[in-house]
Every structure is written in structure tokens, then in C-alpha cells.
Amino acid sequence: MDKKATWDRFYTENGSKGQFKNFEWFFGFQSVKDFILPVLLTMSHSHSGPFNILDMGCGTSALGPSIYRASPCAVKVTCADISPVAVKLMEKHTNSASVQPCNPSSALAFLELDCTQLRGRFGTRSLDMILDKGTTDALVRSKEGQVKAGQIVRQCLEVLKPSGVLLQFSDEDPDARLVWLEREVRGAELTADVGVQEVGELRGVSYFCYQISPCTSPHS
User: Fold this and answer.
1) What pLDDT does residue 198 have?
2) In the chain, domain spans
């Protein structure tokens, strides 16, 4: 699950079925909009210019384009995935669907990106929000992927602004995920606060929103 070729094959097979359809891991935007939009509105009180948002490991999910379309605040949403096949499918679909934003100053972009290389693409303290819907869950299912998932969390903390937040949507129980997250952020150069809220139950599975925010205070 941590190999680029696996996802290229997956999205090639899905893209060959005819008419494009967004593929959603776990759930779509409607299930989590109340976790995302209020955070942006709260941030907007002390923010000028568009919010820089990264949908990390976007695949062909409609999450990023939906935020672009629904956010009353100006946003610059970058949908990034390791698979160029997924990125091209999303670009083609979005262009053909002519998605229009709620805020005329908003922007939407698609990017081929290995999310273990965030530092090479985004500047230190340059992003307001990073979204991870299922990406970490896919990675932690393999031993090699667990190491990559930890690298990604630590790099997220470097590229997030002090007021920024990483939102991880997962079906992993807090008893396990919180322990893992707290261990990974202890290994980061920046300290971080880790919290969790329950998204709810969908199709018999409980989902959670893990919030990881950089701390301004140094290591104690």
C-alpha cells in the first residue's frame, strides 16, 4: 500500500471503467465538512489572503474540490497524490465539470507528489491546513509504510504555520492512534498538540478526526 505502482494500477483500473466517478476512502466531504469549514472560519479572524490547504494523498476524492467550492473564505487548495494517473484523472474531470468556488479569490491545483517529500515542495511554515483522509491508514498497514507515515507527520509540522493544523481522518481507535501520534511528534523538531474528535459511525464503522497542531513553545 506504500508503493506508487500499486496506486497507479488501482487508478488506471478505476479510470478504465468509463465515466469518471470520485472514489472516496471512508466517506465524502459532507461527512466531515463540519470539522473543516469551522476551523477555516475561526482562522479567518486573524488571517489575510487565501488559506493554503493541502489535501495529501488525494487520489480521486472530491474532498479538495469540495472545500474549494464550499468555503466562504478564500482558499488555495492543492490536491496532491503520488500517482500521476490519479492527478491527471482529477485535472481532466475538474476542467470538464467547470467547478466554481464560493469565494472568487479561491484557487484549486493538482500536484504529483510523494508526501514523504513535503519539505522539498512546501516552504517552512507555509501551509494553514493539511488534510489526510486515509493516507496514513493505508501506509501503516505495512512495516515500511509505518516509517513513512511517521516521516510525513514530522514534515507536516515543519511546513504548517504555527496557527495551522493537520487533520487526520481515520478508522483507527484513539487508544492506538493517539499513542502513535504522540510518539511521532516527540521525534519532531517542533512540539505539537494532539487531540481527537469522533466523526461518527458510518456503515457500522466508527471514524475519528485527529488534530495535530504545532506548538509555539520549545521542547521542555
Assistant:
1) 95
2) 35-214
Q: Contact at 8 Å (CB) between 199 and 169?
A: yes
Given this model, what pLDDT does residue 220 score?
Answer: 40
For residue range 91-143, what is the model confidence (pLDDT) as tens digits?
Answer: 988 888 888 899 999 999 999 999 989 988 999 999 999 999 999 998 888 77
pLDDT at residue 46 greater than cutoff 80: no
Threshold 0.85, pTM exceeds = yes
In a 13 Å sphere around the CA of 42, the CA atoms on its Cβ side amount to 11
Question: How much of the chain is helix, strand and coil, in % rounded to 5?
Answer: 45, 25, 30
Going across the sheet that includes 51-56, the strands are 107-112, 75-81, 51-56, 127-133, 160-170, 205-214, 192-202
Backbone phi, psi, residue 84, to 5°: -65, -25
Measured CA to CA, the distance from residue 56 to residue 54 in angstroms comes to 6
Domain at 35-214: CATH architecture = 3-Layer(aba) Sandwich (3.40)
SS3 of residue 16 by DSSP: coil
